[in-house]
Amino acid sequence: MKETCKYENCKSLTSITIPNSVTNLGESAFWQCKSLESVTLPNSLTSIEDGTFWGCDGLTSITIPESVTSIGAMAFCSCYNLTSITIPKSVTSIGVMAFSGCESLTSIAIPNSVTSVEEAAFSGCHISSISVEAGNSVYDSRENSNAIIETSSNTLISGCRNTVIPNSVTSIGKRAFNNCDLTSITIPESVTSIDEEAFYDCSGLTSITIPKSVTSIGVNAFKGCYGLRFISVEAGNSVYDSRENSNAIIETSSNTLICGCQNTVIPNSVTSIGKEAFSKCYNLTSITIPESVTSIGKEAFQGCSGLTSITIPESVTNIGELAFSNCTGLTSITILNSVTSIEERAFYPCYQLTSVTNLAIIPQEINAETFSVYGTLHVLPGCKAAYEAAENWKNFTIVEDANAEPQAIAKAIMELINSIGKVENTEACKTKIAAARAAYDALSKEQQALVKNYNILVEAEDAYNKLSVSTGIINVNADSALKDAKYLKDGKIVIIKNGKQFNINGL
């Protein structure tokens, strides 16, 4: 029977010697054993499994026996004080984030036996030296690059603070520099693709230049690089640009800003702010979204804690899911009438957001987690009732004191009138007409003069009043004063004949 160990979260454990009968420690065997300082592993051990020593802060060194062939995912994750590790020649695979967060680890040597190094294996380590032993059939560290490069694909899969990317590298792999204490990097012209999260959380990186050779940049390639002040794309790039010194990466064909930084100025030609474009850009304190932008993508400004206020321009129709999530410094926002949809958790959690101005005549649909706090909601005159009746908006303290340009208000009212559409004898149609009337009546005479389709509202009201006249029997005293004829009583047509009452169908 295979023996395993299980000391998970044993905070009093300081040292342990594993007997030779043990071949497998088991997943998370010493997880969060923060006082563990000394471990002796037996030569019978064949693998170090997922999360085995995760969070063992007290470990400064450990000897991995020659019998071990694999180091699992997050096996030594967050062993902050681990200063050195020797990977024996028996090891063939190193799992995802195996040594992630080992902040005291300064060098790593990959033996020629290793044929699999998974993503972010050494993320968050302050490594200054990475080498791959000569003769490795899968990886190399060509030209003293201080990196692990997949030989067949010329993909750099793991770098460090001293990495120099060779001119033969064509791709920077997923999470290659994840949480690396990198301060500068030069991407050579040989590189054509930068995978997602390649430089994720490289907070010390202050500038980046994308060469004209790069035609593919993955999502979140520079997410969390909150120290970035300068971003540029080399002239001649066929896919991306940094037009008008924008300090941003813009996808040329779609005019989508895919990556910004603290000094970004969004050009008037940008039509979309892409998914997570400014995510975790903590140093972003202000941004002007131009009228050209029509959509703000998922998590576009997520975690921008330096932002205190934002105005969503009239051109924007959609605010994506989690667009301003965790903008903990945000205290006020203004949403114009053009915004027709606000997706889930768009402003959640934003605990300082106590003032919301919404210039929409018809409240957008929102769910319970669109906002984390319900402060004061400023709406246009005549719109309070609509918001009080709207799910979740009604949770705010609503005041009718919002201001907007007269032309913008008139345009919103005209859109509201046009939304009435075909007049029908329904509650929905009645509500639309009533909302348009209330909004129009709340305008000043000068503003009313700018509403060019007021006649449509009047015609709709008249048409609805005619449709609302129904038929049916009502209580009518049929006496000599009521001769045989049709009568309109309480909005219903009644026929009196021979002292009896009938409806229009003769019943």
Q: What helical percentage do the residues reach?
A: 10-25%
Please report the total strand number as a whole number.
32
Output the number of helix runs.
Answer: 5
Work out the radius of gyration. Answer: 34 Å
SS-derived structural category = alpha/beta
- Spatial order of the strands forming the largest sheet: 17-18-19-20-21-23-25
Mean pLDDT score, rounded?
89
Tell the overall outline.
elongated
For the biggest sheet, the summary is: 7 strands, mixed
Q: Which regions contain 5 or more consecutive residues with pLDDT less than 50?
A: 471-476
Content of β-strand: 15-25%
N-end to C-end Cα span: 90 Å
Question: How would you characterize this protein structure?
Answer:
This protein is α/β, with parallel strands linked by helices and 507 residues long. Among the domains are: 405-462; 469-507, no CATH class. 10% of the residues lie in helices and 19% in strands. Strand 9 (139-140) and strand 10 (148-150) form a beta hairpin.
